[in-house]
Amino acid sequence: MRRFAVTLVFLVLMGTGCLCFRDAYFDLADTDNPERDAAQAMATGDQRFVAYMGIGLVVPGVQNVRRSHVKIISGTNDTMAFERHQVVDEYATRYNRYVLSHLGQKQER
Predict the structure, then answer these.
(1) Judging by beta carbons within 10 Å of its beta carbon (0-12, 13-18, 19+), is residue 66 exposed, middle or buried?
(2) 6 inside domain
(3) Which of 6, 13, 17, 35: CA 20 to 30 A from 43?
(4) Residue 21: its pLDDT value, please?
(5) What pLDDT, in 10s, does the model give residues 3-25?
């Protein structure tokens, strides 16, 4: 009975942990205008930064950010092609630069 209870608690905790990041990933279909994408996200209240997976979590241009404050580009990892890595890194850098600049403006008001 004790083993069952421990297993049940473990599964519940695992399930709630997964729910915390259920919307942390997104598909990157259009890379043409990250600033427009960031503005649209911020207009809906989404102030998260964009990250991608390399050897670890990479959040270009942002230091000391919590994982809950980022959304991760789906399909990224440390084995993606060099060209794809460049596109993803450029997109995330520009997106994050836009978010940082506008968060600063909001805080100054």
Answers:
(1) exposed
(2) no
(3) 17
(4) 47
(5) 665 555 555 544 444 434 445 77
Q: Is residue 14 part of a domain?
A: no
pLDDT, tens only, 65-105: 888 899 999 989 999 899 989 999 999 999 999 999 998 75
3-class DSSP state of 70:
strand
Separation CA 27–CA 48 (nearest Å): 15
Q: How many CB atoms lie within 10 A of CB 33?
A: 13
**What's the CA dihedral at 76, 38, 47, 19 to 10 degrees?**
-40
What the block records as the tokens of 35 is 């600033």
Number of domain units in the chain:
1
Determine contact, residues 13/21, Cβ cutoff 8 Å. Answer: no
Q: Could you tell me the pTM of the whole model?
A: 0.73
